[in-house]
Design goal:
By secondary structure, the protein is α/β, with parallel strands linked by helices. It contains 6 helices and 5 strands, in the order βααβααβααββ. Strands 3-2-1-4-5 form a 5-stranded parallel beta sheet. Helix 5 crosses helix 6 (about 85-95). The protein starts with a strand and ends with a strand.
Length: about 120
């Protein structure tokens, strides 16, 4: 699963080529689309209002809700020292049957989490 964290969502909104390609290609299988965790969308929207409306209109994206189990897991990683905007991405990458890949502009933020991170470069 490909996961965009809040830094990747912001880069997408600024026209990042790779991310734009992922976001505009409609794929029949939702599992093959890029995924944005709800808290990552909130964090991006706090930095750039209107992000949710922008990315919500793109056909190649899926949005991951946060249920009770997810909220409890995010609480644990944030309590352990991870900044909250990254918590839902870590949970999404670690909780799926297939290991998720987090696309991010800040790979160092995930040090020590054990998740697979792909550096998209600085926006």
């Amino acid at each position: 699963m490909i996961i965009l964290d809040h830094t990747a969502v912001l880069a997408l909104c600024r026209g990042h080529r790779l991310l734009s390609g992922l976001a505009v290609v409609e794929v029949d299988d939702p599992a093959q689309r890029a995924h944005i965790p709800a808290l990552c969308l909130v964090a991006a929207g706090l930095e750039r209002p209107g992000v949710a409306a922008h990315v919500g209109a793109l056909p190649g994206l899926e949005f991951l809700p946060l249920d009770f189990a997810g909220a409890a897991a995010v609480e644990q990683v944030v309590s352990a020292g991870l900044d909250w905007p990254f918590g839902h991405a870590v949970y999404a990458a670690a909780s799926d049957a297939v290991e998720g890949q987090i696309l991010t502009a800040t790979p160092e933020a995930y040090d020590g989490t054990g998740v697979w991170v792909v550096d998209i470069g600085k926006p």
